Amino acid sequence: MLEEQFVAGVSRIDRPAAAVPESVRRIRSVAISGDVGAVRRALFDELVSLLDAVGGAAWTIGPQREVQLVMQYGLGPERIDAVHDRWPGHRELLLQALTDATPQFASAAFESDATGSGTGPRQFRLLLFPWPVKGQPTELLELFIPPESLASEDDALEVVRQLCEAAVPADAPPQPTGRAESPTQLAAYIQAVHSSLDIERVALTATNEGRLLLGCDRLSIAVGRGRSLRMTAISGLTSFDRRSPAIRALESLGRTVQNDATPCFHTGTVSDAPESLRGPLTACVEEISPQVLYVLPLADGDDEASSPVGVLVAEHFDNEINADLLRQSCQEIAPVIGTAISNAADYEGLIRIPLLGRLLRSRSRRFGRPGISRRVFAVLLIAALAALVLVPADLEISGRAELQPRDRRPVYAGSTGVIEELMVDHAEAVEAGEPLIRLRNRELDFEISRVDGELQTVLQQIADAQALRARPVRSSTSPPASADEMAAREQELKQVRDSLIAQLEILRQQEQDLTLTSPLAGQVLTWNVQEQLESRPVEIGQRLLTVADVNGPWVVEMHVRDRDIGHVREARAAIRPDLEVEIVLPGDPPVRHLGTVRSVTETVEYDELDGPTVLVTVDVDAERINAPKPGTTVAARIQCGREPLGYVLFRQVIDAVRTWWAF
């Protein structure tokens, strides 16, 4: 994103130091009108002059994600977008720069009258800089700079950044009167400032609305106390660079004003300021060059004795304003802003925490001098350390847990095929052996049809052979077959028949396996059976349904982290295998149940939420659970004996240190 910042006022390029501030002032005078076209032309006037550029262009992204020319400057009569085909990669470069919204340089060689060269390709450094336009899509400024004219890319970017910041058109030109036109505007301003308890939103509203109310060029608010004072909001900007020299100079001046509780009003002469303010004020004037600068502390208007919570900074860059009226108006709205920021700070606990502050001050005074208080503090500290070591506490291992019927069986696809018929739905009761799903395998259907056809052919051949053996038919073309040959032929056909019958039996069995039955009596647990499985192709071994006996025993399946399972195994070996488990079911109020560890798996599985985990199965009394539901998430804690209180509280840290020490 483009980082907004104050005008630095000093240019390091090979030009007079005063050139950049003068350009900034000229652009600001145009930006006040709110005419985007005039601001854009003034911006190119100054940029091309300062950077010795051949010309430039402004681009934006169209509705079809294509680059569109908004304006071209100093590049001749030929439209630059009409010569894209002769500049390979230029359009893609602009689109990428608009998408990234990041200032950048690129090297290019262009051959066109638009770049001022008619004798062949000319080398350029393209400076691409995003320019946010209020109420319109961000535009990309493109400058054609000859390499010999570019002394420093960083300095050139700094110049463009300063001028673009000054060229943001105003939504409505502020009236240079220095105060509100009517009490109604002030009342609306007070209501807007007090409409939120978020410090940043309060400061942003106060600066944006206050700039229009006062008629100044820029209004800023810095919030904090002492050395923690930080610039929080600047009118017209949604983000800015806190490391810029101008902001640092303003924060330094603001800290001095806040600590001295003395406003700083500057109209052109630094020597008139108090001695303590002259250094920071001089730095601000050098960085910003304002005609009027007023910095005053912000205090809670409802508590005049409270210390300031920040400072208000009003700036104006020309003489078209009544400085005395500006100062008077700032003094009118400062208590409003101070009260709003103080309320927001109290609400968020960012600046003032009265109770904690009193406790800390009380403690420092009480323990700050010798006496019995120090001895009491030492005794309490030793007692706390001893309690961490000597006082035992319950060691409980928890994990993500679910309530499930103990008897659950998955239903797998026994063959590859397509689901032809679903005979059950979610939560439907089924009996053992009851059909659940019927699959269809077209290849199996074809194979059954083929084998059955071959079997019928062989049976017919056997019948013909038996008829010929009984009544031999004499043929004039071939000698009659002997009885032995006919018997051998019949025997061969019978062997083929038996083989086909065996194949057909196997295929029929495979056809029966396409009907999947329930492995036990219970209830279908799978959700949205029709939507998930209807007409779905499946592979052999694929899990399709889950059936569980909800009337039988229930268990809690805990996923204990691998780093904690060692405590569970040690407790099972030292205390008893069926450790007690405290189970809390969701409810209002929560209901606690007791269970016992049934088994702990020896394998570690990776869980997407908890990482490496081990499955622990816990037996529970289902009769004490009101209408248990499969998959209900519960809280479970395994009682693993007693350990010192310090270890129970800081177990993870101690275990991590032990592991580190072992290596």
Strand order of the largest sheet: 11-20-24-22-21-25
Tell me the helix content: 25-40%
Task: Calculate Rg over CA atoms.
Answer: 43 Å
Mean pLDDT across residues: 81
Write down the overall geometry: flat
Oligomer: single chain
How far do the termini sit from each other? 45 Å
Uncertain segments are 1-18, 170-181, 350-372
Question: How many β-strand runs?
Answer: 25
Please summarize the sheet with the most strands: 6 strands, antiparallel, barrel
Helix segment count?
17
Structural overview:
- The protein is of the alpha+beta class and 663 residues long.
- It is built from 17 helices and 25 strands.
- α1 (19-31) runs parallel beside α4 and α5 (183-193) runs antiparallel to α6 (199-214).
Characteristic key phrases:
single chain; 663 residues; alpha+beta; five-stranded antiparallel beta sheet
What's the layout of helices and strands?
Blueprint: H1 19-31, H2 36-51, E1 55-61, E2 67-73, H3 90-100, E3 104-110, E4 122-131, E5 139-145, H4 153-166, H5 183-193, H6 199-214, E6 218-223, E7 230-234, H7 245-260, E8 264-266, H8 275-288, E9 292-298, E10 310-316, H9 323-348, H10 354-367, H11 372-390, E11 392-405, E12 408-412, E13 417-422, E14 429-430, E15 435-440, H12 442-470, H13 483-513, E16 515-517, E17 522-524, H14 529-533, E18 537-538, E19 543-548, E20 554-561, H15 565-574, E21 580-585, E22 591-600, E23 605-607, E24 611-620, E25 632-644, H16 645-649, H17 651-662
Antiparallel strand pairs: 1-2, 1-5, 3-4, 4-5, 6-7, 6-10, 8-9, 9-10, 11-20, 11-25, 12-19, 13-15, 13-18, 14-17, 15-16, 17-19, 20-24, 21-22, 21-25, 22-24, 23-24
Helix pairs in contact: 1-2, 1-4, 2-4, 5-6, 6-9, 7-8, 12-13
